[in-house]
Design goal:
Organism: Bosea eneae
Structural class: mainly alpha
Number of strands: 2
CATH class: Mainly Alpha
Largest sheet: 2 strands, antiparallel
Family: Belongs to the LysR transcriptional regulatory family.
Protein name: LysR family transcriptional regulator
CATH topology: Arc Repressor Mutant, subunit A
Radius of gyration: 12 Å
Strand order of the largest sheet: 1-2
Helix content: 55-70%
CATH superfamily: Winged helix-like DNA-binding domain superfamily/Winged helix DNA-binding domain
Keywords: Transcription, Transcription regulation
Distance between the termini: 27 Å
InterPro entries: LysR_HTH_N, WH-like_DNA-bd_sf, WH_DNA-bd_sf
């Protein structure tokens, strides 16, 4: 899988706090978004998001750096 796409999926999922909304925004299926996230998590050997059927949240290790980067680039 393409690393850029995996990162793009992670950032969009984190931004929208939803796999299904990220999938819709990126023009992908929910399954494709889930596969990209799983591949990135495997590549980094860490969990990026925790999710259940109703909610998605960033793991503590990733929420602060992602939010800091958003502030830095003006989002």
């Amino acid at each position: 899988m393409d690393r850029f796409t995996q990162i793009e999926v992670f950032v969009k999922t984190a931004e929208l706090r939803s796999l299904s909304r990220a999938a819709e925004a990126l023009g992908m299926s929910n399954a494709a978004v889930s596969r990209h996230l799983a591949a990135l998590e495997e590549r980094l050997s860490t969990r990026l998001v925790e999710r259940n059927t109703r909610r998605l949240w960033l793991t503590e290790a990733w929420s602060a750096p992602l939010e800091a980067d958003s502030v830095t680039i003006g989002n």
